[in-house]
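Re: nicotinamide-adenine-dinucleotide structure - here you go.
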Amino acid sequence: MSIVIPTPVNEPILSYAPGTPERAALKARLAEMSAEQVEIPLIIGGEEVRTGDMVDVTSPQNHGHVLARAHRAGPAEVKRAIEASLDAHHAWSTMRWEDRAAIFLKAAELLATTWRQTINGATVLNLGKTAHQSEIDAACELIDFLRFNLHFAEKIFAEQPVSAPGMWNRTEYRPLEGFVYAVTPFNFTAIGGNLTSAPAMLGNTVVWKPSDHALLTGYYTMRLFEEAGLPGGVINFVPGDPVMVTEEVMGHRDFAGLHFTGSTSVFQALWKKAGENLPNYRSYPRLVGETGGKDFIIAHPSADVDAVRTAITRGAFEFQGQKCSAASRAYIPASMWAELEGPLVAEVESISMGDPGDFSNFMGAVIHKGAFDKIAGYIDRARASSDAKILAGGTYDDSTGYFVRPTLILSGTPTYESMCEEIFGPVMTLYVYPDAEWSETLDLVDRTSPYGLTGAVFSRDRDAAREAMERLRFAAGNFYVNDKPTGAVVGQQPFGGSRASGTNDKAGSALNLLRWLSPRSIKETLVPPTDYRYPFMAAE
Ligand code: NAD
């Protein structure tokens, strides 16, 4: 029987415009979720585990609002989670592919229907996303990850070797031997769901350490998988101190792979740890990490000024600049600057910011106090620097939530700190270059930061666009021509960057799935030889 996974199409994005049913549904769910306080247990081997070592889960837009209280793992629970994942490995990895696939298809369907506003609501409240940003992340992107990855896996499985006469050759796509460690960031609910489910759908079992700043979204994602029928032990949800959890997990002999998204420095530390422990592991662990960025927009003198302005505003400030792909440096030709500056400053000053539960807001608050302080530091230093000038925003207030006004900095030098370093907040730094130095400016874009995640060129001149594509070949793993550098869609623009931005294994594609497979080549000889002598040895 040949199994065919339903051909995926990208989940349609609901508008949440006034009068739509989805707007009413999300508002109703937000009201309910705002009024309750959820207790979040660990989930190990399908069982709820309570340690009593608890943290408050609060809302970025109102840090006094405790949304949930979460139990944190100690070393004993982490060990238990590892054992649970190893115990589940045999039954899960030998379960028929169509049965595993059906579980994740069901998870996608539940998320598209009855669970949509729970996961969206958690994303608004816990991460500070607007209705639109939640919809494109927590609903649509996660649904797409699930459906498309199943489809890509099926294509991988279909890839089989040729067989010479008298034999049958096969490739068996085994999961890794051991367990996979998923370490997920705060900023996308879909990433939490994907870093766990992508290895799991291929037969791996997973220990999941969610971000401390995304525990409500992580918990509901785990519940969604359970509701879809995921057996206990396949994904084990273990919030806890990141260093302690990692010590336990990466010190274990059966640690077989790391599926990480987060900052560059943390990934580098985890890579080193894997290197140090290498002789103790059963296999060479797969290390997959998507990390930081310093994503750029470069405008050619021929570019449409309104398109450049819109890309800067949307690319830099949606979700408060906390997308790994967010534009955070822009290079504008002097001839365009006079026309761009006034309208851009006015547009940025007009951005509505506040509680995303009020749908008139375009922006919410940044995720936590550490992020707020870091961003405020960049703004304060820019205000004091003779190399930089704040053109818009530049104010911040954490009395109720961690609010930072969208900020434009004009830099007098292309190497000013906010042109080079990842800030991960609503700060865009602009550098105005002489029109005659277009090619030199492309080289400047290429060498200014250690990252290589996303970037965009705006140009109506085809030769200039071509030159940018060539000179910036290694500057971005996701490159945009006349579009903002954010908003990659599963199945359309597979996502990831190289250099310091990660291993570029392209989340939501076959390339990523291949990292969680350890193929076995099987040769079966149909009628085996019974005489060791070859024909050439026979007498003349
Ligand atoms: P983060 O690095 O602070 O945290 C990521 C995860 O690592 C969390 O689960 C955290 O608890 C864990 N962690 C932190 N310190 C650790 C340690 N010492 N040992 C083990 N684990 C540790 O990142 P974040 O603030 O959650 O997310 C923002 C970062 O993620 C940005 O740098 C952003 O560019 C990056 N990001 C990249 C992509 C991509 O696809 N390239 C996507 C999203 C986010």
